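## retry 2 of 3
previous attempt timed out at serialization; input unchanged, resubmitting
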Amino acid sequence: MQLVPNERRRGALPVGTRVEVRSRYRGSWSNGFEVDQTTDDGYWLRRESDRYVLPRAFVADDVRRRG
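## retry succeeded, writing output
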């Protein structure tokens, strides 16, 4: 997994940005996450509740900034 500096990716969400994630099963959005890393694979996210980093990367279409 190669880290990609945020400034090289157009529209990339910086580390620490609070985000919502689209559910793969229902298509609904869930909040309570933040960006842990931005990589070539997508966004690695951390749950805010327990600081656990989720075990897979999420593509940009499945992550949106929490407003």
